[in-house]
Write a sequence for this structure.
């Protein structure tokens, strides 16, 4: 593990954690489908097909994502109206989108007390709100998405908290002048799946981006099966200069600076390595770290 440009490629073995122990404590099979992805894909299609209506679509996008009717205005049913106007072929595309990843999330507050990090769970509602800072005015990631919390055993997993403490130590090394004392941590558990009906899928459908947190683990790969691709790519200097890429194996991950930095990231789509098997997946944990207070 090396610290350079506040980008660190790591292996959980360096933390004394075997990847199999993480897999045993954090099952991915019971995660629920992220249905937000369907509606965001539909909204993107409408924006592409009706660029002159882009601003109005964005005004009503949150209501569409929430399955709510907009407040009574002249534009209250604009999205439904635009859908009804779609030619048959575009309408077929609009309704053909399928979910391609399952996910859950949890939040923690970590405090540095008596020379060690104490990580405490924040109890989340049945559906927890999550949003990201927009990279541009038409970035749909600014919409509020809702995800179920991680399974109780997973979010209280001792191994998960050991992982977080190790990431906090890396963060403190990156921010040695600030000396952080309190940090909010959000953990995302995601399973990206493909089969015969979805031959490829991407965990960054928005393309090159920043997440909007002080530091992130853009991906810690827990398990993957019968896939090619899924290469993490990092760029610098306002997205113009390619820095490095890593096709992470199970147990490997990338920790790096994010918000207000020149580091941008994305991951390439995954495809089936052996199409005859007809199923493939890439299971990861992602983490967002936001500084609350420092010395």
């Amino acid at each position: 593990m090396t610290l350079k440009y506040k980008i660190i490629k790591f292996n959980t073995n360096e933390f004394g954690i075997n990847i199999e122990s993480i897999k045993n404590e954090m099952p991915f099979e019971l995660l629920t489908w992220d249905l937000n992805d369907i509606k965001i894909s539909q909204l993107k299609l409408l924006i592409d097909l009706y660029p002159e209506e882009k601003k109005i679509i964005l005004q009503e996008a949150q209501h569409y994502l929430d399955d709510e009717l907009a407040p009574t205005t002249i534009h209250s049913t604009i999205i439904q109206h635009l859908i009804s106007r779609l030619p048959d072929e575009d309408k077929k595309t609009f309704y053909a989108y399928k979910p391609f990843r399952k996910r859950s999330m949890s939040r923690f507050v970590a405090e540095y007390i008596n020379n060690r990090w104490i990580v405490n769970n924040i109890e989340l509602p049945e559906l927890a709100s999550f949003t990201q800072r927009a990279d541009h005015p038409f970035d749909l990631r600014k919409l509020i998405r809702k995800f179920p919390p991680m399974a109780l055993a997973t979010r209280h997993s001792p191994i998960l908290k050991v992982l977080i403490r190790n990431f906090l130590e890396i963060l403190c090394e990156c921010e040695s002048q600030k000396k952080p004392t309190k940090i909010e941590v959000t953990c995302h558990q995601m399973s990206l799946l493909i089969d015969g009906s979805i031959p490829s899928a991407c965990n960054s459908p928005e393309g090159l981006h920043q997440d909007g947190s002080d530091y992130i683990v853009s991906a810690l790969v827990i398990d993957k099966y019968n896939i090619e691709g899924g290469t993490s790519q990092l760029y610098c200097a306002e997205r113009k200069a390619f820095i490095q890429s890593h096709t992470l194996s199970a147990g490997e991950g990338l920790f790096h600076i994010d918000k207000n930095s020149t580091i941008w990231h994305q991951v390439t789509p995954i495809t089936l390595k052996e199409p005859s098997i007809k199923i493939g997946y890439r299971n990861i944990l992602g983490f967002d770290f936001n500084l609350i207070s420092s010395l």
